[in-house]
């Protein structure tokens, strides 16, 4: 009976196997396998490549190569260099133009003289000429002002590149230290979770032995359960901060970053006292230099507009070759005539009232630049003072939090030992752990604030 049953089961299994591997199903299976391989290959192709950053200098080096704002500023500088070459060419090299013209007379002018009709003109007319003009840099032709304006424009783009680099450096530093801060928060939460776990195990053992109360057990359980969501939140914040750093560096969408190391206190100081640093920022900041160049450009425009009151002189020359022939003569026998001439030309815009308005506008732009520079220097002084105050405050908090953190760590050790000995209750232990948690986070936040304030000062100083 058992043998027959085994035989029937074997037949059923054989039938199922044959059904599963019929020819049509084998084709389907092959297609499925190929699709799976294709999807796997593509998923590998589109997987994110990761770049490991060991320190802030590596992050800055990557940003200088990849950040799109820096790339665009470099392109603007190259455009300005080409513009300077163009202005030199326009103002110092004579303008040469070639003109060619052919005209066909379909109906010529006819004069009737004493009953005889006479046609004027030719069937075909060819004219070719080369014209040369050169402005004279005197009177109303401010050639060198135009060249200086172009050079100032190039300096503007060079300073703008420096300003963009300073801004990118600040953003990268802030994002990098933000990653380190969130990493520190994750580590603190992991330590807190470990402490909560150990505390919960101790309370559970005491509760099972009838030494601890149910309230202590529930309180330690709630504390342990509350730490895990905080750790999860900190880990999500770390992922977000890494994306912010990747964007600040300028990495592509399929590139990600990993940051090693930890947030440390760098006590490097700036040379000079506070007043010297503030004065240097107010006078030498890149934004002040940019406005100063803008003022010089507007001053050149004043010179250009005032020169429009005067006539403009230029030299010109022309060489022409042309012919006028009727259809009866073959092209190879056309008679070409050469002419050459040169001279001195003058143009003068006599609309003096309109030009006076332009002069006033350009002079007002210069006054506006003076006010902008004065206002910017005042704002830079306030920003630099705020950054220095924030730097000093962070340094003091770092020094304070170091001692507080050591005391809090010792308090937790004593609280756990005292609770195990039955001297303290569970509330005292959790108060000690909360103080330790806050002191660790406070220390890391102080270091972050110090590094950000330092980065702000470096940006203002152009370091």
Write the layout of secondary structure elements.
Elements (H helix, E strand, L loop, with lengths): L1 H19 L2 H23 L3 E5 L2 H11 L1 H25 L2 E10 L4 E5 L2 E5 L3 E12 L7 H66 L5 H36 L5 E5 L14 H11 L1 H22 L4 E14 L11 E11 L4 H69 L5 H36 L2
Parallel strand pairs: 1-6
Antiparallel strand pairs: 2-5, 3-4, 5-7, 7-8
Helix pairs in contact: 3-5, 4-5, 5-6, 5-8, 5-10, 7-9, 8-9, 9-10
How would you explain this protein's 3D organization?
The chain is an alpha+beta fold and about 475 residues long. It has two domains: about 55-95 and about 140-310 and about 350-460, Outer membrane efflux proteins (OEP); about 95-135 and about 310-345. The chain has helices at about 1-20, 25-45, 55-65, 70-90, 145-210, 215-250, 275-285, 285-305, 350-420, 425-460; strands spanning about 50-55, 95-105, 110-115, 115-120, 125-135, 255-260, 310-325, 335-345. It has a four-stranded antiparallel beta sheet with strand order 2-5-7-8. Strands 1-6 form a two-stranded parallel ribbon. Helix 4 (about 70-90) packs antiparallel against helix 5 and helix 5 runs antiparallel to helix 6 (about 215-250).
Rg is 42 Å
What topology, given as strand order, has the largest sheet? 2-5-7-8
Ends distance: 93 Å
Beta-strand percentage range: 5-15%
What is the fourth-level CATH superfamily of the largest domain? Answer: Outer membrane efflux proteins (OEP)
Overall mean pLDDT stands at 83
Number of helices: 10
Q: From the 3D coordinates, which CATH architecture of the largest domain would you assign?
A: Up-down Bundle
Report the sheet with the most strands, covering strand number, pairing sense and barrel closure: 4 strands, antiparallel
Q: Oligomeric status of the shown chains? A: single chain
């Amino acid at each position: 009976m058992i043998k027959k049953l085994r035989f029937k089961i074997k037949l059923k299994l054989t039938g199922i196997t044959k059904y599963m591997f019929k020819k049509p199903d084998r084709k389907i299976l092959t297609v499925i396998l190929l699709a799976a391989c294709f999807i796997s290959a593509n998923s590998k192709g589109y997987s994110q490549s990761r770049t490991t950053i060991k320190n802030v200098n590596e992050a800055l080096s990557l940003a200088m190569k990849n950040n799109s704002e820096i790339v665009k500023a470099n392109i603007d500088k190259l455009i300005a260099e080409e513009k300077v070459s163009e202005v030199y060419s326009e103002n110092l090299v004579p303008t040469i133009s070639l003109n060619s013209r052919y005209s066909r007379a379909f109906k010529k002018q006819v004069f009737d003289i004493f009953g005889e009709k006479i046609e004027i003109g030719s069937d075909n007319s060819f004219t070719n000429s080369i014209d040369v003009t050169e402005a004279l840099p005197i009177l109303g032709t401010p050639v060198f002002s135009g060249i200086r304006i172009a050079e100032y424009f190039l300096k503007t783009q060079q300073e703008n590149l420096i300003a963009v680099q300073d801004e990118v450096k600040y953003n990268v530093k802030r994002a990098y230290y933000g990653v380190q801060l969130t990493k520190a928060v994750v580590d603190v939460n992991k330590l807190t979770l470990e402490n909560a776990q150990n505390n919960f195990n101790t309370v559970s053992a005491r509760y099972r032995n009838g030494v601890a109360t149910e309230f202590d057990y529930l309180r330690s359980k709630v504390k342990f359960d509350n730490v895990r969501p905080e750790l999860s939140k900190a880990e999500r914040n770390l992922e977000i901060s890494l994306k912010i750093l990747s964007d600040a560096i300028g990495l592509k969408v399929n590139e990600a970053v990993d940051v090693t190391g930890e947030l440390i206190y760098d006590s490097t100081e700036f040379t000079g006292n506070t007043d010297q640093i503030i004065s240097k920022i107010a006078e030498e900041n890149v934004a002040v230099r940019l406005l100063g160049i803008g003022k010089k450009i507007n001053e050149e425009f004043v010179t250009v507009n005032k020169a429009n009151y005067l006539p403009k002189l230029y030299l010109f020359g022309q060489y022409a070759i042309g012919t006028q022939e009727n259809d009866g003569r073959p092209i190879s026998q056309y008679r070409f005539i050469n002419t050459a001439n040169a001279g001195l030309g003058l143009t003068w815009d006599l609309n003096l009232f309109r030009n006076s308005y332009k002069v006033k506008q350009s002079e007002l732009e210069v006054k506006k630049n003076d006010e902008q520079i004065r206002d910017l220097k005042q704002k830079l002084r306030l920003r630099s003072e705020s950054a220095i105050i924030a730097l000093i405050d962070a340094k003091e908090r770092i020094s304070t939090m170091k001692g507080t953190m050591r005391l809090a760590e010792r308090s937790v050790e004593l609280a756990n030992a005292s609770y195990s000995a039955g001297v303290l209750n569970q509330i005292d232990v959790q108060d000690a752990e909360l103080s330790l948690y806050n002191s660790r986070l406070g220390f890391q936040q102080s270091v972050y604030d110090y590094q950000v304030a330092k980065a702000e000062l470096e940006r203002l100083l152009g370091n």
